[in-house]
Amino acid sequence: MKWNRVPLGPLQTNCYWIEKDQSVLLFDPGEEGARLVKHFEQQGLTVAAILLTHAHFDHIGAVDIVRERFNCPVYLHEKEKNWLTDASLNGSERFGLGKIVCKDGPSNILTKEQVMELEGITLNVLHTPGHSPGSVSFYCKELGIVIAGDTLFQQGIGRTDLYGGSMDVLMKSIHTKLLTLPEDTVVLSGHGNETTIGWEMEENPYLNGF
Question: SMART domains, per this entry (predicted)?
Answer without folding.
Answer: Lactamase_B
